[in-house]
Write a structure and sequence with these properties.
Blueprint (H helix, E strand, L loop, with lengths): L2 H11 L3 H15 L10 H11 L38 E8 L4 E7 L4 E5 L5 E8 L1 E9 L5 E2 L9 E13 L5 E3 L7 E6 L3 E8 L12 E6 L18 E7 L7 E4 L9
Helix pairs in contact: 2-3
Amino acid sequence: MCVQRIRELFTMTKKSPASSIQALYDLCKQTFTPSATSPPSSQATHKLYSLLDTIGPEDVGVKDESLDDERGHGLFGFNVFNRVDRWAQPITYVDIHEGQNFTMCMFCFPTSAVIPLHDHPGMTVLSKVLYGSLHVKGYDWVEPACIRKSERVGHPTVRLARLAVDKVVTAPHGTSVLYPKSGGNLHCFTAITPCAVLDILAPPYLEAAGRRCTYYHDYPYSSFAQGDEIVGNGKEQEYAWLAVIDTPEDLYMRPGRYMGPPIQR
């Protein structure tokens, strides 16, 4: 085979950023339809996370900030004469696609940044860490609901949840999936290093449809145990009581501009 033909075949088979993110959008559009009343099938979900597994920072136009030292300036262009400590930088939210059926977006974290414990009511969420390391802690509600209402002023009403995930995810780790009632639907993120996460949410948040983001504080199981031993056999560490809180005042996200290949919608 001649050298020219080999080059042509290599060009044809080599993955391009444009084809990767476009293929992901097309598959999401095919999977998450207006008529869908439940999460996609396991087969459809497998196709999605298999494709998402192949997506890297270059496919969505971001730089791997975890390779920089701690004097880095964040993801979207701090001026060299106006350096800001990484710890003081906000999380950057990048909207790739927002529609009625699904949302594609990125969260770009400086070191130690946190998205507090929150939920995804009635939603399926696929997440891929594009670069860096991220600690993920997630819960699922215990069903039937177990609620403790405190009669003491200033003490919260809490609901029992079970720990579903508590680990550090480091790129290029595979895609994670959470469902409306399993997989860690209530979760929080803490950046171990600068990192970026590509999310697909379906259906997206919509307050009018009851899909409102609620924030929580988790308390150890022993904090609200009343001697009835709902949980026993040494499994107390697998459970926590969650209380609804206001949106944290120190949670600040700045908008970022999508710098990846354009998507044909």
